Amino acid sequence: MAIAPLKTSFLAASMIGFLVSALYIPKFSITWAFAFGIIFTIMFIASMISMVRGTPDEQLYPRPKPLH
């Protein structure tokens, strides 16, 4: 199984989401801000791991068609 990098929009969404959850959400609920912060941090870590592990060429390889 080939590892392919995640999209750049996934990385951007994790960074923007973390900033919003750290700066805006605590005004309403600390618990929700913490929960969203954890989720967006995990998304950011996943995108960093996929950048290190994958190569863009693996996405371009043709996939074999299943024989039916």
Write a compact overview of the structure shown.
The chain has three helices and no strands.
How is this structure best described in words?
This protein is mainly alpha-helical. The protein has a domain at 8-54. The chain has three helices and no strands. Helix 1 (8-23) runs antiparallel to helix 2 (30-53). It is elongated.
The SS-based structural class is mainly alpha
Give the CA-based shape: elongated
Q: Largest sheet, described in full?
A: none
Sketch the topology as an H/E string, one letter per element: HHH
* Global mean pLDDT: 84
Distance between the termini: 21 Å
Rg to the nearest angstrom?
17 Å
The poorly predicted ranges are none
How much helix, percentage-wise, in residues?
A: 55-70%
Q: How many alpha or pi helices? A: 3
Count of individual beta strands: 0
Bin the strand percentage.
Answer: under 5%
Please give a handful of descriptors for the protein shown.
68 residues; elongated; 0% strand
Write the layout of secondary structure elements.
Elements: H1 8-23, H2 30-53, H3 57-60
Helix pairs in contact: 1-2
